[in-house]
Amino acid sequence: MENMKHIEQMEMKLHTMKEALAEVAYHSGDSSFDPYSIHFFLLEMGLDGRHFDALYWSLRQLIKEKTVEELKSLELETIQKKINQMLKEKFDLEDYFSPLSIWSLLYGFSHDYLPELWIIVNANALGVRVNDF
Are 59 and 109 in contact, with CB atoms under 8 Å apart? Predict the structure, then answer.
């Protein structure tokens, strides 16, 4: 019984920390569409470090040895299918990312981890804004 109470207290502390992070992110201008922190974006999506690692390596493979023109021609739908397939195979998650969240994922990773993704983000920006709102 004591152990359950301790677990419940830890869950409440984690929830409070997540809410505090959300408030700080909001006041700094972070949003789902314009994520400053890919880790916070994934946390908001219910994903964790294991998912970050798998996404990072999948995205690295996707852009590996591609020219600028090849990166510009990658469509979000193609990337979405590849990422969702990987998440299904590794984590049993079905159709996790929508086109808009894939764009935000690429945007977030392009900030600090994979700057080459910015080419894809930029090439698809207008289409996402027009089609997904």
Answer: yes
Average pLDDT rounded to a whole number, residues 53-63: 96
Q: Which residues contact 126 (CB under 8 A, 6 or more apart)?
A: none
Contacts of residue 116, Cβ cutoff 8 Å, sequence gap at least 6: 63, 66, 71, 110
Q: Between 129 and 76, where is the model more confident?
A: 76
H or E, element range at 133: none
Q: Which ranges in 1-133 belong to alpha helices (H)?
A: 2-27, 38-44, 49-63, 68-73, 76-91, 99-112, 117-131
Integer angstrom CA distances of residue 106 from 7, 27, 68: 35, 22, 16
Query: For the chain, first and last CA: distance in Å?
Result: 48
Neighbours of 67 (CB within 10 A): 9
Query: What CA dihedral angle connects 47, 50, 53 and 57, to 10 degrees?
Result: -100
Contact indicator for 93, 87 with CB cutoff of 8 Å:
yes
Long-range contacts of 124-127 (CB under 8 A, 24+ apart): 124/75, 124/76, 127/76
Query: Does residue 31 surpass a pLDDT of 80?
Result: no
